[in-house]
What does this fold into?
Amino acid sequence: SNNNEEHTAGTLPIKSPINGIVVERNVVIGQLVDATTTAFKIINTNSVWIDAQIYEKDMNKFSNKSNAVFTSASYPGEKFEGKIIYIGQIVDEQTRTITLRCEVQNKAGKLKPQMFGELSIPVGSDAKAIIISAESVYKDANQNFVFIQQNDSTFENRIVETGISLDNMIEIKDGIKTGEKIVTSGVFYLKSELKKDEIAEDEH
It folds into this structure.
């Protein structure tokens, strides 16, 4: 018969309903299986789901199909763009957060299951807000500042207007232009150097 031509006696090919990679094998040769046995686990990572937590007070700022950008310490400087596909309906009693799910294309297979990172979501009426690390912003005299890198040795201290914050990210409403380099580490050192210069000027 055709079946005998397709496989040798004593073997039976198992076809997966999807293309993907085998990540689990739960059976061994000679083991009896039935319809309830999960023999293999196969995943397709061409696109992945990324779950993030947002505070309940911010849930009305997002919607399904909102754009999002995922970054990971595993790939410094690389951004993975996606869209929000699901916003949870249950608030965690302890953290007061809601689960938000983003679908990201992953054709190169760089993103792996259980990988951690940061999800940035543009907010506002025009959805063009700039989102930066909250560590880049410091307060002085009731105003918010960031350091903008002009070149290898020159930094500009600039006042910014901040918006909503989510975990360790914060929205910048005004004061920064797209493409400008913002200092994310060493802010305390630059602030200390700035104070030294101000004191020196006052003494003259």
